[in-house]
Here is the input.
Amino acid sequence: MAVMPQIETIVFLMLENRSLDNVLGWLYEGSRPQNVFPLDSSRDYNGLAGKSLTQPRLENGLIKRYPVIKAPDAPAKGLGYLPYWDPTEEMYQRYNWRGVMNQMFGNQNRITTMPSSGTPGMQGFLQDYTMEDWSQEYGWQDILWTYTPQQLNVINSYALNYAVSDAWFCSVPTQTDPNRAYSILGSSQGRNNNYLRANEQYPGPTIFNALVKGNKSWGLYFTDKWSGDISFTQHAFPGITTAGGKHQIGSLEDFRTAARGNALPNFTYIEPKWGYSIAGNITQGSDYHPPTNVFFGESFLQWVYLILRRSPQWNKMLFIVTFDEHGGTVDHVAPPRPWQAIKPDETNGDYGFQFNLFGARVPTLFISPYVKPSTVFRAPKGSQFPFDHTSFIKTFLLWAGQDPNDPRLGLGKRVAAAPTFENVLSRTPVNTQTVDASVPASTDDGRALNAIFEGVGFASVRKIMRENETEEQMEREVARYRRDPAAFEAELSKD
Here is the structure.
């Protein structure tokens, strides 16, 4: 029998490169969640409140320890731009061993080989981030600065008013492409890192193909064209192109239209606008990726939420918000069952890595009328493994009436053993609220400003925001700018 029969529409948004401690570490400071799953699990949220956590660094031959603290409200570069540099997110950097394995297994000293045993101490974040030959605004301690609920009000409000896991781990201790691969096809096909600057492809059947077998429609909505006219997700996972079934591939505007028109596909996959930094030059996205401005991610998340909350399909919807990997940002919880994760296929990784180690914790939120407010969830009682990205695949398969043990689906060996999350949801609606969260740099309905102002000069953006209040007024002025940018900018000297 299929699970989650009360859910007709799943909307899936995977964001980028933040650990649980980094964005949700102080969520329940001074309080406890009202509901936990499983019922007999800890009543305390495993965040940063009440803990005195530090990280070591070697300075002049001596070990000095620095605390993990709340981010200052007004750092020099701006609160949105933390950490200052993009931390290392590869499993390893060949030749110097900086990377995720060093963050997890290093301390004041960098690792010198690929670990294959032992429990991660989670003590290498500061050492891994520090680069003495680069200039840095904050003495490298900003890797230990974590956002408060007041600073990241949107994601914290949704975590507080719906459900969040404090024990969801990325599938492999490395960066974006391999972890997204685990969420879509159950394996990274032997790849430890992004090898082609996030341009490689992972052939084979995907969760989209499997859902079609279960008579579910699907949609893929995006902003950035990655290769030709297709998105990053469709390019990286070409099996999606062959999924068939009833589907729509389109823009975020198509997503909004479908949501308003009661026409979202059963499985709706949303890509954020990708943000990144190369040699210190930032391309701003809406995906929370450091060191870009995280408030654009907040604004985008709010925009998606409000569209869904106002959709006729909301009453039978589950909105999932998660992150692909921790991106080098600090987290204090080691992945459980080290070296016992199931290897998904017969492919070995570099340096003999067996894909038997989970990565760091990442935020995962369930937003739905069927989620009790103030819920914290972990893997079900008796589960052999924690939640990881293959838990998405397994639960989606069961929702579509498909057998996760069916090898013909081609989704890897880890999927069948992954814990599922259907019991976090109630069978009847239990949550009727609309969360009203404020966010810096957002319009009246929370639409991401970079979606409105893309390509508009900074000075002109400031003028438009200063002189207009509603989204419609801003869009009208942006249209006027686009008709004649030179004339519009000439007005700036008159102000």
Notes: The radius of gyration is 22 Å. Confidence is low (pLDDT under 50) at residues 441-449. The longest helix spans residues 294-309. The CA atoms of residues 102 and 489 lie 49 Å apart.
